[in-house]
Amino acid sequence: MEIKILGTGCPKCNKLSKLVEEIVQENDLAATVSKVTGLKEIAQAGVMLTPGLMIDNDVKFCGKVPSKSELARIITSNMSN
User: Fold this and answer.
1) Distance, CA of 7 to CA of 46 (rounded, Å)
2) Cis geometry, peptide bond prior to residue 66 (ω within 30 degrees of 0)
3) In principle, which of 16, 31, 46, 47 could form an S-S bond with 62, CB 3.0–4.6 Å?
């Protein structure tokens, strides 16, 4: 699974990145986590509000930081896809 955090490095983007890393580690998930900080790349993904989360090239949400439990549900529900 490929997880991308889309954002320019604002506090919300950093919080989302930290939560994603924690969830991947705590659940021992086979996932590659990367950050996309270029505005052109973020816009090409269709994200106009940051932070955004993309899993396997599919945008799951943007413009918010969900709770850790909601984020874990989003990430783990994509494990079988």
Assistant:
1) 12
2) no
3) 47
- Going from the N-terminus, what domains does the chain have, and what CATH number goes with each? 2-77 (3.40.30.10)
The predicted model scores a pTM of 0.91
Smallest Cα–Cα separation from 16: which of 73, 69, 76, 64?
64
* Region of residue 13 (phi > 0: left; psi between -120 and 50: alpha; otherwise: beta): alpha
Helices (H), 1-81: 11-26, 39-44, 68-77
Q: What is the pLDDT of residues 22-57, one digit of tens each?
A: 999 999 999 999 999 999 999 999 999 999 999 999
Over residues 5-22, the mean pLDDT reads 96
Q: Is 6 helix (H, G, I), strand (E, B) or coil?
A: strand
Rounded Cα–Cα distance for residues 43 and 36 (Å): 11
Whether the Cβ atoms of residue 13 and residue 5 lie closer than 8 Å to each other: yes
